[in-house]
Amino acid sequence: MNSPDPLTGMRLRLSELVLDNSFARLPPAHYTRMQATPLPEPYLVCASESAAALIALDSEEFKQPQFTEIFSGNARLPGSMPLSAVYSGHQFGVWAGQLGDGRAILLGEATSPLEAQGSIELQLKGAGATPYSRMGDGRAVLRSSIREFLCSEAMAALGIPTSRALCVIGSDKRVMRETPETTAVVTRMSQSFVRFGSFEHWFHQDRKEELKTLADYVIAHSYPDLQDASDPYHALLSEVTRRTAVLVAHWQAVGFMHGVLNTDNMSILGQTLDYGPFGFMESYDPAHICNHTDQQGRYAYRMQPRICEWNCFALGQAMLPLIDDVDAVYDALSVFKIAYAEKMSALWNAKLGLHVNEAHDVALTEKLLEIMAASRVDFPVFFRRLSGLKQEDPSGDAPLRDLFIDRSAFDAWSVEYRQRLRMEQSQDEARRQAMNRVNPKYVLRNYLAQAAIDKAQQKDFSEVQRLLDILQHPFDEQEENAAYAALPPDWAAGIEVSCSS
Going by C-beta distance under 8 Å and a sequence separation of 6 or more, which residues neighbour residue 99? Predict the structure, then answer.
């Protein structure tokens, strides 16, 4: 058997991949042991070599029939102990009671050759009904599975904490959504799929012992450094809150909108989890709502920091029986605003190519976003082009000015921006390179994803693969793929994405 060694590049075959399942060693109240529902005539839609490397799996295994059988749920890996977890949560701000893995089945965890990763859980999404499906069929459709696969891998390449996606397995089996659609199973990867709602479940049932068991498991499994803290539960809440604040700052800086920030969709690791009606900002509008079913705009772009903090407070309430001190809970939660402000400031300055924080930088950024909103300037295109601004040559600003309806507003802002660059003796070429390392040229625009989905529904998966290849190098110029970074066509504005999958 090959040893998974990232230094030598050795990779495992499927027959050598053995799982464990530490979550299955929790008391049975935390989950239901079960098998996936067989998927008829499965076929491989797409797979990620980068994700496979996290568990040292040889990408040559993608070609094997057994790969498709295993990750459709039709066959099992050695050591697999499939289960679906129970949790509850607030949905759109309203307590929804018990939820749980309605279409997800945790297979177990594989040891990662990367020391920082520890172990990686493998979860099948769309593998059939579970006791938590709530009248649903437990299936995911090809459309949503491709979107989750591509966005998981795109976010990882952007350097944003996220669950990963190993592959999508399709089938001609149809289920009814708004219309009949073909089904698929996406294999998700994370160090843990425990959610804020996992803690809320036991708090709202007044079951402190189960709550403590879960918290002790999360600390031992995902936060071992906190075991020696004077109050490990306070330390856990504080660290999860800090990570969540940093995560949403990353979202805001890249223009990502999650769409359904319910507490059951919030990762205890501070990762992006549960990709549904997400979107990347195009024409900048801080009030933009990417989820067609979010009629009140609770999860609009500008609301995301506030909602993530609200979700942390819901987690804090759930952990109160363990911390047993309201003031201590508030103390742990207080890190959110500080961590968010610090990370947001650092990210915006990096996007603007500024190396030193100055008191006026926040006002400079806010003014820019104000004039961008007024002209509905394309978010990724503007920041990518901004790197090419010449401090001493405003005559070359046309590619930037042309993005604005009110060009004079940009001209006035650019005067302040140039003054700020000169203040820290910025060098144009060094700044250009630095900005292009943090401002992606390529993001997963909805119309690009839809074009790939349309082809995939005709059994042509080439565009999914091409998008994956492009999005795994979002900061590179990739001149041969420049069309994927262009301003979107007019028809793209009519695309609507909802929670249905």
Answer: 87, 88, 89, 91, 132, 134, 197, 264
